């Protein structure tokens, strides 16, 4: 009922983790592999191992989360080693995330993936809001276009980009026009809503240390923005460019709404952090129940079929 075709492979279901959550270590990646998620993605890798921002750098807050992790990760070789050994024993193509902190680092990372035996799908994260002094790349439209031109000059493996949320119709139009020039496999919308501020009411204090408390917001707070971004890109991008819907997926109903807006795969971030990998089984059961109640046998029966008034 929930089978999902993505590129040439059919995954058992559309659920995945969002990069950054439960995917930093081999142990966490193995947990995801053993979970009910259709597939999973590795933590966004930089060339060298990074410690990330000082702690506390993540906080659960009433309607979601705030984080300023700052790309802590074990370096690209660690995740590439994992991916290469994973693909020896599994047929499902794995997703592999990279996030350089400069254009040149992104190019070098992708050159490394291109030169490797990796056969899965690569995600170029152009939207991390948490590295001090480094703006989110995909808010710079000419720079995004320039990077993609360089990347597609040499990168021939399946590639998607992870985008920040956009909030203006003109920006949806402009970004879609840029993305449509390239043979992208997918667009992942959205990364956290960057640079929010949560205040602990008992202490009159921020809840995370980096950047004086500013951090990316996830969870329930972001679902309407995530749905709008998924819908905006689903209606503007070439049909060959699939959408991964991320943001505010806590329940089967949230997953259903992302699919209705046109998403093909779905990533769970904050709720995976709060609930652990058992979240996938619960959301899948809830999604199946909704589909049964509505008389749908396959996701294709309703994907993208959002009604307007
Ligand atoms: C982080 O490591 O700061 C989170 C990654 C992201 O938001 O892209």
Description:
By secondary structure, the chain is an alpha/beta fold. It has helices at residues 26-34, 76-89, 103-115, 141-151, 169-179, 223-234, 252-260, 270-275, 278-294; strands at 4-6, 9-11, 15-17, 58-61, 64-67, 95-98, 121-125, 159-163, 186-189, 193-197, 199-200, 205-206, 214-219, 242-246, 265-268. It has one domain: TIM Barrel (Alpha-Beta Barrel). A seven-stranded parallel beta sheet has the order 3-15-14-9-8-7-6. Helix 4 packs parallel to helix 5 and helix 7 (252-260) packs across helix 9 (278-294). 50% of the residues are buried. The model has no long low-confidence stretch (mean pLDDT 98). The structure holds succinic acid. The site of succinic acid has 13 residues, from loops.
Q: Key terms for this structure?
A:
309 residues; 9 helices; 33% helix
Average pLDDT taken over every residue? 98
| Strand line-up in the sheet with most strands | 3-15-14-9-8-7-6
Q: Tell me the radius of gyration.
A: 18 Å
Please tally the helical runs, counting DSSP H or I stretches of 4 or more residues: 9
Structural class: alpha/beta
CATH fold node name: TIM Barrel
What number of structural domains do the residues give?
A: 1
Task: Summarize this structure briefly.
With 309 residues, the chain is α/β, with parallel strands linked by helices. 33% of the residues lie in helices and 19% in strands. The chain is built from nine helices and 15 strands.
């Amino acid at each position: 009922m929930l089978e999902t075709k993505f590129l040439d492979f059919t995954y058992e279901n559309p659920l995945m983790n969002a990069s950054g959550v439960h995917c930093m270590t081999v142990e966490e990646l193995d947990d995801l592999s053993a979970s009910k998620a259709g597939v999973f993605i590795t933590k966004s890798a930089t060339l060298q191992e990074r410690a990330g921002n000082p702690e506390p750098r993540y906080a659960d807050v009433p309607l979601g989360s705030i984080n300023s992790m700052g790309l802590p990760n074990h370096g690209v070789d660690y995740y590439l080693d994992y991916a290469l050994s994973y693909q020896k024993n599994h047929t499902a193509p794995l997703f592999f995330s990279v996030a350089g902190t400069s254009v040149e680092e992104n190019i070098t990372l992708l050159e490394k993936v291109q030169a490797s035996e990796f056969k899965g799908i690569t995600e170029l994260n152009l939207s991390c809001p948490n590295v001090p002094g480094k703006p989110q790349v995909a808010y710079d439209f000419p720079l995004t276009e320039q990077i993609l031109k360089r990347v597609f000059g040499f990168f021939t493996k399946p590639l998607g980009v992870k985008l920040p949320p956009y909030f203006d119709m003109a920006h949806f139009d402009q970004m879609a026009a840029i993305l449509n020039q390239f043979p992208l496999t997918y667009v992942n919308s959205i990364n956290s809503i960057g640079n929010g501020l949560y205040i602990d009411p008992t202490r009159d204090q921020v809840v995370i240390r980096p950047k004086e408390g500013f951090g990316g917001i996830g969870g329930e707070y972001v679902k309407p923005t995530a749905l709008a971004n998924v819908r905006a890109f689903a209606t503007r991008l070439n049909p060959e460019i699939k959408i991964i819907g991320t943001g505010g997926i806590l329940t089967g109903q949230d997953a259903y709404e992302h699919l209705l807006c046109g998403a093909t795969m779905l990533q769970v971030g904050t709720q995976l952090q709060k609930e652990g990998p058992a979240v996938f089984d619960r959301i899948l059961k809830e999604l199946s129940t909704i589909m049964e109640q509505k008389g749908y046998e396959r996701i294709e029966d309703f994907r993208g079929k959002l009604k307007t008034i």
